[in-house]
Design brief:
The protein is an alpha/beta fold. It is built from 24 helices and 27 strands. Among the domains are: about 390-600, Rossmann fold, CATH 3.40.50; about 645-760, Immunoglobulin-like (Sandwich).
Length: about 775
């Protein structure tokens, strides 16, 4: 059944190509098409659809002679990923469609995590915009560029709740809060997919990961055990996954970790009972990289046994482990899997391809002319520059050091000032670093003819030369030079003495966060701290640009550096930083993670359960037999939701439309917000709820809504929130989603610590 036959079948079932693009594909039509196709497939061809491999050497070699090319022609490959070459992708697709017996198209995927060539801040930084339109737009742009370059499927968004900042993959999610995580997850899915899963032309298929609990790895150690009660799963960890499913996500990726003692890859309760039966998910489930093979390390048997368990649990596609293709035929003969199990998985893969329109047009994704027009185009770069500027979080600005003036002499120092690859952040698989500006280049352009710019690396990233080289080069990034420490420090201090203001670009390079980058110490690396201390001793105005993909410890910096801004990377980061630092844009980002005073506080998060011996945040004095530390002030240094602007805001007391609410009613909570500063700025107004008495212990506060509000200097505005029953519900001990009567605190403010409170009662 070659391409022409498949396309004729699709066209006949969908009436016409033009009609298909205008309406949702009927499930009856899809079922008929897939059933007819599967009736012609051999067992090997069905197993081939469940098999996914990386592109490997096809990028530089000939598709016909590459391993994936040969498998595609044999009908033993369902999907391929991480090929960045539109012509190679089209050529490989040609092999699958024209040379295999049935001509079933390949599903081409890529880790398009926070952009294709136009790279946005890491997802944690995107969440710090608190701007869901911007988040959705970033995914839409990423999808447009990826689709033009032949990619139909992205392994994003990652929606894992990450409470422990020692875990490097905190960079890839939306932080610690389930409500924020749910909003970002839905926005990313909408942005990626557009209308493509419903017969439309725009978008690529999203893949929600990692299902489930991957962000709860013990000790923040990547790939480590995650274990918790189901009560906590449903109330704290599951909401973003569920929100992504409800937004229409076409696929789910299972996680490496165990859930209730069983690897998620083979956990039937997770993949079938929760995901499909409770939440109604009808798309495709793919494993994480080689995770079926890694199940052996969990003590659940070899590759054959693991593959059978994964299939029966609800896994549809095997990424890289070669377990399905190489062992399921034997398991079928032995009776440990059934033909129905294989058919079910094959059907879901084929349905995904059908919904994407690949049977109608196998070359729908990938066009050289469109790719040249869209990829890293001016419109996309301008959007990225604006959104990147929104993501920066101003943590401190003593004596109005910021914004800077474009005059005098400015020293730009630090190990991150000259890199083009690290500017984008981790997981920028398709980046084009030759097109991006380094910080030095961005500052030079912004200050040309207006101020003198002095630049120096000043120090190494870390003291360990081998690790520094491995961190960069091992992930394909240009290595930041390992320099003579004394000479570099002397050069930087000489420049700092000459300057009127010093800007220090420090923190984590791109691959100091992301997968496999757990840390035991979240403070600034030692050589960078030594340079910063030496600069601070000069008594000059100093601005610290803290590049990070997680919450880091800035306790010393907060005490000694007048201005601190958290920076979350992006291809347009250099220009966006100049926009904000020199005052063309007022910073508006707010944290979606709690920044600790010490690493030993981790995991640290604002929405914790109450304690019988709770100590208020900020309590510095040690108290005997209470929940505090001997050696640290309690609570976060910078709390969840925190962020400054170049202006200031005042909140009135909270006003409620009623002090009572029926179980099916609503209450309106409002405040008057006033810009008390001297310039226009944007505030993120946040609504929190606390259930004061319930059948189980409830968090001390939970984010339930927010609004970005822009006010001119001196302007006031009433900001209203509608409290609905759904904002008050939770999963009780029996895992029933309930609203219980009683008193609730409603809190409104600019971060999770500084809040105005009012109380109402649900009857």
């Amino acid at each position: 059944m070659k391409k022409e036959v498949l396309m004729a079948m699709a066209a006949g079932l969908l009436l016409s190509v033009s009609v298909c693009a205008q309406r949702l594909p009927s499930s009856d039509e899809m079922n008929h098409f897939v059933t007819t196709l599967m009736s012609r497939m051999t067992l090997d061809e069905k197993l081939g659809q469940l098999h996914q491999l990386p592109g490997g050497n096809i990028v530089t070699g000939s598709p016909q002679t590459s391993p994936v090319g040969k498998l595609a022609m044999e009908g033993k490959l369902g999907s391929v990923f991480n090929i960045k070459d539109v012509e190679q992708i089209v050529a490989l697709q040609h092999l699958a469609v024209e040379k295999s017996r049935l001509g079933i198209p390949l599903l081409v995927a890529m880790d398009v995590i926070h952009g294709y060539e136009t790279v946005f801040p890491v997802p944690l930084g995107l969440s710090c915009t608190w701007d869901m339109e911007a988040v959705e737009r970033s995914a839409q742009i990423a999808a447009a560029e990826a689709a033009a370059n032949g990619v139909a499927w992205t392994f994003s968004p990652m929606v894992d709740i990450a409470l422990d900042s020692r875990w490097g993959r905190q960079a890839e999610g939306a932080g610690e809060d389930p409500y924020m995580g749910s909003q970002v997850a839905a926005a990313m899915v909408r942005g990626y997919q557009g209308n493509v899963m419903n017969g439309g032309k725009d978008g690529i298929m999203a893949c929600v990961k990692h299902f489930a609990l991957y962000g709860a790895a013990e000790a923040g150690l990547d790939y480590n055990t995650a274990d918790m009660s189901r009560l906590r799963m449903y109330n704290q960890y599951f909401p973003p996954y569920k929100a992504a499913v409800e937004a229409g996500a076409g696929s789910i990726m299972s996680s490496f970790n165990i859930v209730d003692g069983v690897p998620a890859t083979a956990n039937k309760w997770l993949l079938t009972d929760v995901l499909r039966r409770q939440w109604g998910f009808c798309g495709m489930v793919v494993t994480d990289y080689a995770s079926i093979g890694e199940m052996k390390n969990h003590g659940l048997g070899g590759l054959k046994e693991s593959a059978a368990q994964a299939l029966k649990a609800g896994t549809d596609m095997d990424m890289c482990a070669n377990g399905f293709l190489s062992t399921l035929k034997q398991s079928l003969d032995e009776g440990t899997v059934t033909m129905a199990d294989i058919d079910q998985a094959c059907r879901r893969v084929l349905e995904a391809k059908y919904r994407l329109g690949l049977f109608q047009n196998p070359y729908k994704f990938g066009d050289v002319k469109t790719a040249k027009k869209l990829t890293y185009c001016k419109e996309h770069r301008e959007a990225a520059r604006r959104i990147t500027a929104e993501s920066f979080v101003l943590l401190k600005n003593a004596n109005g050091v910021l914004p800077l003036k474009k005059q005098g002499t400015i020293a730009l120092i630090g190990p991150l000032i000259d890199t083009h690859t690290d500017i984008t952040g981790s997981w920028a698989v398709a980046q084009a670093p030759e097109k991006y500006k380094s910080l030095r280049e961005g500052f030079a352009e912004a200050l040309k003819g207006k101020a003198k710019l002095l630049c120096a690396q000043g120090c190494n990233l870390m003291d360990n030369a081998q690790t520094q080289r491995t961190v960069g080069k091992g992930h394909g990034n240009e290595p930041i030079p390992f320099v003579d420490a004394d000479a570099a420090l002397a050069e930087a201090i000489s420049m700092a003495r000459e300057a009127d203001v010093v800007v220090c670009a420090m923190g984590e390079c791109a691959w100091m966060n992301g997968e496999g980058t757990s840390r035991t110490d979240l403070e600034l690396y030692a050589p960078q701290r030594r340079l910063l201390e030496a600069v601070a001793e000069l008594g000059k105005p100093v601005v610290l640009l803290n590049f990070a993909g997680r919450a880091t410890v800035l306790t010393w910096e907060a005490a000694h550096i007048p201005a601190i801004m958290n920076v979350w990377y992006g291809s347009e980061c250099a220009d966006a930083l100049c926009d904000v630092l020199f005052g063309d844009v007022s910073p508006s980002g707010h944290l979606t993670v709690s920044m600790p005073r010490a690493t030993g506080q981790e995991p640290l998060y604002y929405n914790r359960l109450p304690s019988g011996r709770y100590v208020q945040d900020g309590e510095a004095d040690y108290k005997v037999f209470t929940g505090n530390y001997l050696d640290a002030t309690s609570g976060a240094l910078y709390p969840f939701g925190y962020g400054l602007t170049y202006s200031s805001f005042a909140y009135s007391d909270v006003r409620l439309s009623s002090s009572r609410m029926s179980a099916d009613g609503t209450v309106t909570a409002s405040v008057t917000l006033t810009n008390t500063g001297q310039r226009e700025a944007t505030e993120v107004v946040q609504l929190y709820i606390h259930d004061k008495v319930a059948s189980i212990s409830r968090p001390i506060k939970e984010l339930k809504d927010f609004q970005r509000v822009t006010l001119k200097a001196g302007e006031s505005r009433e900001v209203k929130f509608t409290v609905t029953p759904d904002k008050l519900k939770f999963y009780n001990y029996e895992l029933q989603y309930v609203l219980e009567p009683g008193e609730f605190d409603v809190m409104i403010g600019g971060n999770s610590r500084e809040l105005k409170t009012a109380t109402f009662r649900v009857e």
